[in-house]
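Replying to the earlier thread about multi-chain prediction with a worked example.

Input:
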Amino acid sequence: MGKEFVKSITGMDEDFAQWYTDVVTKAELIDYSSVRGSMIIRPYGYALWENIKDELDNRIKETGHENVYMPLFIPESLLQREKDHIEGFAPEVAWVTHGGDEELQERLCVRPTSEVLFGEHYKNIIHSYRDLPKLYNQWANVVRWEKTTRPFLRTLEFLWQEGHTCHETDEEAHEETVKMLDVYAELCENILAIPVIKGQKTEKEKFAGAKYTYTIESLMHDGKALQSGTSHHLGDGFAKAFGIQFSDREGNLQYVQQTSWGFTTRIIGAMIMVHGDDRGLVIPPKAAPTQLMIVPIAQHKEGVLDFAYGLKDRLAGSFRVGIDASDKKPGWKFNEYEMKGIPLRLEAGPRDIEQNQVIIARRDTGEKVTVSLDELESKIAKLLDEVQNNLFYKALKHREEKTSVALNFEEFSEKLNTNKGFIKAMWCGDQTCEDKIKEETGATSRCIPFEEEKVAAECVCCGKEAEQLIYWARAY
Amino acid sequence: MGKEFVKSITGMDEDFAQWYTDVVTKAELIDYSSVRGSMIIRPYGYALWENIKDELDNRIKETGHENVYMPLFIPESLLQREKDHIEGFAPEVAWVTHGGDEELQERLCVRPTSEVLFGEHYKNIIHSYRDLPKLYNQWANVVRWEKTTRPFLRTLEFLWQEGHTCHETDEEAHEETVKMLDVYAELCENILAIPVIKGQKTEKEKFAGAKYTYTIESLMHDGKALQSGTSHHLGDGFAKAFGIQFSDREGNLQYVQQTSWGFTTRIIGAMIMVHGDDRGLVIPPKAAPTQLMIVPIAQHKEGVLDFAYGLKDRLAGSFRVGIDASDKKPGWKFNEYEMKGIPLRLEAGPRDIEQNQVIIARRDTGEKVTVSLDELESKIAKLLDEVQNNLFYKALKHREEKTSVALNFEEFSEKLNTNKGFIKAMWCGDQTCEDKIKEETGATSRCIPFEEEKVAAECVCCGKEAEQLIYWARAY
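Result:
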């Protein structure tokens, strides 16, 4: 194997950040450009995003939502309408000040999120309870002026969907907030094989302008947490700022109750850091652009390529199948598709033709099995299921091993430094304690889990009475 | 029928511009916002775009292209690398000068198109003829700082796909340019029922930085032309500006040959202006978000709603079907779905139940037919085909009636003012004549058609010898 074909990557446990950078570039998910903090999403990365997007878009439509498209730019005065919102976002927006040679009278910000645009539109189109609920979603790019960036995890620009809905009652908005968090959680667990903790953000960590924020939190290989999707009950704050009123069933004028919820290309970063290993990416079969890659062995021998292409045609209706019949050596191809995290590799050579079989290798365990052609489809389907499940349970086991309980501040710091991962600990509800923990340990409150639990009676920080358990972690 | 339900629109022949505005707003395709020159694409408009996008995306993938995503921002220095390109685009770009509170050291333009970003990336990833061709596409929003704007036709921001490819030879790039123009033409004619003229742009009208530009041109109801898709052979201009070189099959270093091609939300404006009428939108069945709308008649009577929903369930697997069982009057519903251009309306009432039939009304001709339930699917399929074909041939007939030949300047002006539409006339090839025609008549050269024709031996403007026939028109 020629040296030019070897793509070596840094070991995960040696330097996790470098490992991540190696994987995203060498698996050809992204490339850098001269645009600071932005990334080029390459064909393989974008195909992955398209799969995730299609899965989510189907779920968004099945739950009754409609897609729309809002403008990219927001006039400064519009962004300022909701006070908490502008305070939260102003420090991180990009400002357009000139169009062509002309200086603009009012600056335009490049949308960091679109609550205010939806607010203005909803005021125009909602008049009566008959107009409700309004269940809108948009797929878009957004920009946040981040200082330190990393492909997928934190970039100046990212791709996402943002749902924005209006309801008659607080209760209905609450149900929507829960429903969409459940959609995100189901997608993460069933398609991306990423186990998540569902819960509520603290006041400090909630979305700027929301009544409350629900979140799903996942845990990466290195023990850091990653916020994987959020769903906000906005109450009537934006409705009041934008005057979105309707006559209710009794003929009284009311403000609508709103929600918003978002899911981003960030999840690709989570998928990499949850499942990847020292040989590169590992992609769960349900999300994989290619589920099975056929590599002909001794392809110069008579009949091998015909056999391999025959298999591809046979399988293409049932699975996402690729074939590499290039003149590169099989060993190079094995490395390449392992780096790219393709769930199954199918090897087919002269001996296999003779014996009416193929060899299938699993990316997740490295296991190789011989499969008779008579049961090829059923065996591949079974293997793909097994890979999908194995990835999920492996990640769940890892999260459980990396979740500790802390009863006091010393224990908190010690477990955070040794075991890393999530720390479950009680909290009095006072932001001073939350701030102190962040400042002294680097851990932030990830969420108050929906599955209530009580591991002690006192706050892990101040020792005062505490009712709430929090998942804490250092986070991306 | 209550007055509040009536959505009246301006007559097409009374004030075509106002008719257009009425249609896009009252059919709920778009809404305005406080963002100058931008539009909100509402659910019905976006569903239409999603259908067009899916059709085109399938064709782009079937022809071997891969989707990628490039950054939204372009540093000023990068945009300036290709001289003709920056000259063409600089007057119409939006500039970001601040990120948060900080003034940027280098301004960033919001992409008006992405040739330079692809150029930089291609330099990184192309080294050998083995890396070619590279066939990339992206779906994105772009911004052009237009002074006068109109929904879909000319907006500050629009949605599009932009293909960017690299090839070994000039000939291959030429084939790609032709192939993608053909894809656009086929989509316009077969899905959107818009007949197009294929041809080449003059030097004056070609894309900034291209070797040559191919275009498809269509004709609107009011006799103005609309450029409906363009495909550019870029030659090696960008390759030289960005240093995109490869070692060829003989081991020599060569510059790649490139193409780019784009298709935008503008086509929705074309669809409206080609097929619409005084009752509103008319959408070709293959592009329609809803192909058939069921309107129950006397729905308070026993069995009617069950019957109507039964039909919906029966048809939903074969067609895109809607049902309106709201308490609005049938007359209101008829108007509403005519305004929205839904190809077929199915009326189902007590008499129909008795007689095992339904009434189907065509949006394009107003014709009503009684259809037995025994042949419902086949009859609907046939009607949808007929509507699709009728729209295409009606548009083709209109274009033919609005296409004149002019042999001299007086005839040119006269026919342009009376018959409007396309003028076919000879041109000497001199830009002075092209400029003069534009200045004195408002018509621009739309294209030199691929189907060559010679209607005279002299230039329509200067009377000198002329070889090329041009389609001229006033245009959107």
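The domain at 292-384 of chain B is CATH 3.40.50.800 (Rossmann fold).

Feel free to reuse this layout for your own posts.
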